[in-house]
User: Fold this.
Amino acid sequence: MCANSNDSSSSELTDAGGGSSATSRRELLSGLSTGALGVAIGLTTTPRLARGADPGKLRWAFEADGDVRSSPTVADETVYVGSRDDNLYAVDAVTGEERWSFETGGTVGSSPTTADGTVYVGSGDSSLYAVDTATGDEQWAFETDDKVFSSPMIVDGTVYIGSWDSNLYAVDAVTGEERWSFGTRDRVISPPTVADGTVYVGSTDGNLYAVNATTGGEEWVFETSNKIASQPAVNNDTVYTESADGNLYAVDKATGAEKWTFETKSFRLNSSPTVTDGTVYFGGWSSFLYAVDAVTGDEQWTFDTGWKIWSSPAVEGRTVYVGSLDGNLYAVDTVTGDEQWAFETDNRVFSSPAIADNTVYIGSDDNNLYAVEIDSTESDTSQGTSRGSGADEGTSTVGSSGFGTAVGVAGVGGAVFALHSSDDET
Assistant:
């Protein structure tokens, strides 16, 4: 609807806090002297910041006017993220300064996706927006019949996204015109995943659908016993999906036949699965982060955060990153399941992490988007960040999405994107 410039909402805290223990943002802010603040402001003009010096340390925090449950996407040194203050924000990835904001007519719980100079995002005002990445100006808006908390996936010039009106939509990425719609029996909160000409998406009717990406025709349907709000992950010949019935399912990509089921201790699952190096990572309302063998469905380890996990994991090197409703971002060893460090925010973390240039970006219900340093030895950003599913070389989706499968930060058609879990609001 409108783009506004405002550079006053960021806090550069490069000299404060961090380390291997949980770090409170409130303590960091209260500990800043005038001199320290001056140093921080001075650093905002530095082209690049030092990398990998102190894992778990806060680089900067950007404050919105509402909860940040949307998961960030990083492209061209810009972080795109939505907020419950109805805005989509573009934030400098190095300094934390606002570049522009775009106001919609409702909560932005959808996670943005970028491609070819455009950022796409859904809103609680029932619309999918295409916004210029450089200026923040609206290019077009596509209106559905209910809220859009699903996050977009872009493949071959088509934007795929779900709506609370029970439909999955295919929309022309350039013109915003509808190509087709596919009706389910309930809300489509799940962000879609596209692989090998098929769109995979869940619905709160409890079904996982496989839909032809070109025609919108149904290929198969897999039934669970409760709603699906998370994004499916595709790896090789298997689709992984979670259900609010507390199970993780492995389903044959071609036929929709069940391969195995992993029963959790959770009565509900919203975190989208991440698949990399033969392991599926996902969280649940039981407070556990799970690591499960992708082929057999056997448990490898669990990590207890202490409260519910809505956030979707991101894997970089030997570390899996995930947020928890206990207010922390956790870094966990992928092999042992041991905690490496935790970063504490001042409220619940629904947002999912995105990783770029030895920094992990994540939102919190304390209204902040955080940039947190990670150890350079933990990551190899040239290989991207595994998050969720992949159809390409076993770990990356075909297309780009602002939500939780596939690579967290990787180039697809010139876009750099992160994938996350959406703001369910149910």
Q: What stands out?
A: The two ends are 26 Å apart (CA to CA).
